[in-house]
Amino acid sequence: MSLIAFAIYLITDGREGQDERAEQAISSLPRGAVAVQLRAPALTGGALHERALRWRALTTRLGAPLFLHDRVDIALAVAADGAHLPARGLPARAARRIAPSLLLAASTHSLPEARMAVAGGADLCTFGPVWPTASHPGAPPVGVAALAEVARSLAIPVFALGGVDAARAGEVAAAGARAACLRAILDSSDPAREARAIHASLRRAARTP
Asked: What's the pTM value of the predicted model, to 2 decimals?
């Protein structure tokens, strides 16, 4: 199975207690259905390396690709599957020279940004925020129409970010995209149930002509 076959891109934000909740969510889905982006900007390099080693062991056991946010070096050090490049971080082209074996994901917020990421060698991108989100309170939502335009225009998988939950996952799939999730799953009272609901909604909509 291709590493980019996953439908859900689960993003952590470094808060305590997320390991167990993420494990519940990943375990509830078929192997290969979800990837994890380990994002913990408050940690030092050493502490992030320690956490990344734990997540590498967890994701390997559960069959989930692991991406490190903004740390190509640590992604290589723990044998992660990929690195996630923020919009103001290392350009995809430079990251590709450093780490030709890694999958590269890129944060994008407009069609020109998305095209630039593809031109630089990104293998997938997040796009958003599609809806208002507490994770980016000051960012205006781009909307589903913009998501659909980006998904149509790119030859790589596009993951809708911002406000994506089970109720909206069908719109995401209908727009030709997949789901990047943080709070919808990790702040849920039942992360496994929410993950399954998002996955089921994506699959139903993707089968709709």
From this structure: 0.95
